[in-house]
Structures are given as C-alpha cells and as structure tokens.
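If you are new to this repository, start here. Below is one unmodified record pulled from the training split, so you can see the exact layout before writing a loader.
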Amino acid sequence: MTKRHYTKLPAITGKQLIRLFEQDSWEVGKHATHGLSMTKRFGDRTKVVFVPDKAESLPTGTLLQIIGPKQAGLGKKGLLRLITKHGLK
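And here is the target side for that same chain:
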C-alpha cells in the first residue's frame, strides 16, 4: 500500500488532529469540556494549542487557527507533511 501524498487540506476531526500532534511529539495537557491542551517545547520556548476533542470534522477556520502562527506554527504545508508522514487514522 502506497502512502497518499496530500496537496489540499482534507476534512480532519479533532481526534485525528490530536493523534497527529501526538505523533509529532506534542504532549497532551489538561482536558476541558471544549477539548484539550497540547504542548511542545522548541528550545527555550513552549507552544500551547487547544484542540476540540470531537469526532466531527473541524471547521476550516478553526483548523487554520490551530495550525497557524499564533498557536502550533505549522501552517498548511506543515500539517500536510504530518498527514503524509503519519496518515489519517
């Protein structure tokens, strides 16, 4: 089975995004009613993102905010690389 190479953002659920972040060394933090926080250290800095823990697809705007420069700092290309590397499960 060959890996699929993504060029556009697919529909992705909060649970799938959490799994991708975990595979990229993000650590699960506190759980809340709206989702959970995830943290990752970058040298002397720590990034914190909040991901809705739900099984429905995330709205595009929400997904872009989570992967954007103010939160995860991945951007579309970074997320597509993660999806291509680890796949969506």
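Two things worth knowing about this chain: The first strand starts at residue 27 and ends at 32. The radius of gyration is 13 Å.
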